[in-house]
Write a structure and sequence with these properties.
- With about 200 residues, this protein is of the alpha/beta class.
- Helices cover about 25% and strands about 30% of the residues.
- The strands form 2 sheets. Strands 1, 2, 3, 4, 7, 8 and 9 form a 7-stranded mixed beta sheet that branches.
Length: about 200
């Protein structure tokens, strides 16, 4: 039987550390990495961009998604997507037929929200006095609530693509700051992660 210390070392050796400034792009990137490298452990951290940049530059993360490009020697950074914050509404909701909404339209509403939103937390924080957010830390529990309740939820154009089949519509939020560009950064030495060479098979 392999000693526990050796097991821990092996796990650390083949663990990919990813940081993301929002949860939805982290879900997509995790899925892509696990499909590309079967057996590779993936550790995800959702955090504000400034802390992710710091962690990326000091070697804590191999891949990061941030709201701005990262510059530096040996760093490759490229625009991947633009995320648009939105409200995921039941089709029966009075506001479901609107083409766009503002946070003020949701005053007094109870709204489901994922607990750790990274940079999006700065956008939601000023609205907390007018909207009652019901936070969930577990993604599966969050999805179950979406299926079972009629409460609106915070979503995005990216997050809605991972949602189960539910009778809801995704309505964009029009307030300032509800769009965010997403940049994927990698060190040149870790470029193989994006090129498809499985690190568990490298010599």
């Amino acid at each position: 039987r392999m000693p526990e210390q050796l097991l821990a070392y092996a796990k650390q050796l083949y663990t990919l550390h990813i940081g993301s400034c929002a949860p939805a792009p982290a879900w997509f990137l995790t899925q892509e990495m696990t499909e590309r490298f079967p057996g590779l452990n993936v550790d995800i951290t959702v955090e504000h961009s400034d802390k992710l940049v710091e962690g990326f530059l000091d070697g804590r993360y191999q891949l990061v998604i941030t709201k701005e490009a990262i510059s530096g020697d040996g760093v490759q950074s490229s625009l991947q997507a633009r995320e648009q914050l939105s409200i995921f509404l039941p089709r029966s909701h009075p506001l479901a037929d609107r083409e766009g909404l503002c946070f003020s339209d949701l005053k007094g509403e109870s709204v489901l929200c994922f607990q750790n939103l990274g940079d999006w937390e700065d956008v939601l924080r000023p609205t907390m006095q007018q909207i009652h957010f019901i936070y969930q830390t577990d993604r599966q529990s969050f999805i179950q609530l979406l299926q079972a309740s009629h409460l609106p939820s915070i979503a995005s154009n990216l997050a809605s693509k991972t949602a189960p089949e539910v009778k809801r519509v995704n309505v964009p939020l029009l307030d300032e700051g509800t769009q965010m560009d997403l940049y994927l950064s990698v060190h040149e030495k870790d470029r193989y992660l994006l090129d498809g060479d499985n690190p568990t098979k490298r010599k």
